[in-house]
Amino acid sequence: MRKTVPLTIVFASGIFMLAVFFVPHRRVQDTSQVLLEWDLVVWTCALFLSGLNLFIVNAKKVRRKERDWGYKVVLLVAFLTTLVTGLAWGVRAGTPFMFIYESMMRPLQATMFALLAFFISSAAYRAFRARTREAALLLAAGLIVMLGRIPIGDMIWHRIPVITDWIMSYPNMAAQRGILMGASLGAIATALRMLVGVERGYFGGEG
Amino acid sequence: MEYGTAQEPRQKQGILERLTAIDRRIIFVIIGVVVAVPVLYPITLPVLVSPPVQDLYDAIDELPPGSVIIMAIDFDPTSEPELYPAYLAIARHVFSKGLRVVALGYIAPGIPIGERALQIAAEEYDKEYGVDYVNLGYKTGMTVALLMMGKEIWDPYPRDHYDTSVEELPLMHEVHRLDDVALAVDFAHGVSPDYWIAYAGARFGLRVGLCATGVMTSQYYPYYDSGQLFGLLGGLKGSSEYEALIGAPGSATAGMTAQSLAHLVIMAFIIVANISYFIVRRRSPGA
Predict the structure, then answer these.
(1) Is Membrane tagged as a keyword (chain B) (predicted)?
(2) Would the CB atoms of A139 and B274 count as touching at under 8 Å?
């Protein structure tokens, strides 16, 4: 029963939502809108649960004084402060929530991502070697695209942006199309497996 | 050649070995300086507009005044330097043409960034919130929200970002379904364009354009080539191109100098590393 009921729900709702794409009847379309609203409620509940889970997991680690528990205190304080200020004063400009966002969250996120430039430079220096013919080809294409993506490339030789566009529009696109088709076929296969109950990962390992 | 047989080769070998195993902190310092100096002392470089960005501009430019476009804020502060200038430039273009905007997003921390750009552009062109533009804010469950929007936008978005009922926003009385929208532009740093293309585009026939981060752009060329994206703007470079098209150079144009120099330095690093690698390998094949 614990397996049959969820599997039946998945199968029935999956088949119905597939049918919605092909059946324009008003009643079918209206029913699908109601189902989608339920889905949105589920998503919102999942968001609430994930927040709650984050709090419980980290609070336990702080209580037990596990490794790096001090960082978890910072996380919990930031989490609660942001939550309370957002709920109490809203998210308009000038509110405490926006102060936290503008003066802490935004610069911290931007800084973390900006560090990537340094690591990419270091990694490119150490790892990007033309060890094989294929690697040499990739290296040459990469250098041309890097040059073609900056105004200086055009200043050096006006054909560099043209060659860059050619690389992006032909070899790159051919490879990307292959990847896309493979990924799409994989996604369709997984969806079908879920629909017929072969793929049961959503049971959380109990299927 | 055998190592250490003469003073000169030993010195050369030392330099090359040092180059192949250079302390990464030196690389960090060089990159830091190269990026910081042009930001502090900006030099404007000429901007060449690429066809995908020109197509994006043309599609918006050709819309009749009063048309509604969706500007989706699917990025957060990590991609702000790349995508905020594009958002601001397109908001300016849209308002200058008398078009109206519905902003929304599926990455919560991005909403205030888009809101800021819209407020700046609205102030410049004397546009009013609720009449000329609205911000529907963040919604979880992107795929579900997009599917619902095909039939009734008010269902997933009964209230705007500021908790005002959409009934109180005059613009929203004209926007009920994706059919009421002329086109959508997704400003993205993740997988959201896949959903805009598959659901809003393929399912409901909405024209979709994309402003993506630089690293994402190559991935979306097939969609642009097939016409599933009417335009494609990539990273800071694309943003600077759009700024050039509207005749308002901004932070992207200024940032291109820093990006140009950083690219050149990284290229120099790669070339130097490869030259020293090959020389060292030729001298000692087993290494």
Answers:
(1) yes
(2) yes
Work out the minimum CA distance from B90 to partner chain A, whole angstroms: 21
Both A78 and A5 in one domain: the answer is yes
A123 with A152, same domain?
A: no
A115 and A96 belong to one structural domain: yes
Whether A15 and A83 share a structural domain: yes
Q: What ipTM is given for this predicted complex?
A: 0.86
Domains in chain A, number: 3
Proportion of chain A in helix, strand, coil states, percent, rounded to 5? 80, 0, 20
CB B101 within 8 A of CB B131: no
Find chain B residues with C-beta within 8 A of A101's C-beta. 109, 112
Would you say residue A28 lies in a domain? Answer: yes
Name the H helices within chain B: 7-20, 24-40, 51-61, 80-96, 111-124, 142-149, 192-195, 214-217, 221-225, 235-246, 251-283
Contacts of B27 in chain A (CB under 8 A): 118, 121-122, 125
Instruction: Give residue A175's domain range.
Output: 131-199
The 3-state DSSP class for residue B177 equals: coil
Task: Please list the pLDDT of chain A residue by residue as tens digits (207 residues).
Answer: 778 898 999 999 999 999 998 998 999 999 999 999 999 999 999 999 999 999 999 999 999 999 999 999 999 999 999 999 999 999 888 999 999 999 999 999 999 988 988 888 888 888 888 889 999 999 999 999 999 988 888 889 999 999 998 998 899 999 999 999 999 999 999 999 999 989 888 777 655
Contacts of B225 in chain A (CB under 8 A): 169, 173
- What is the model's pTM? 0.89
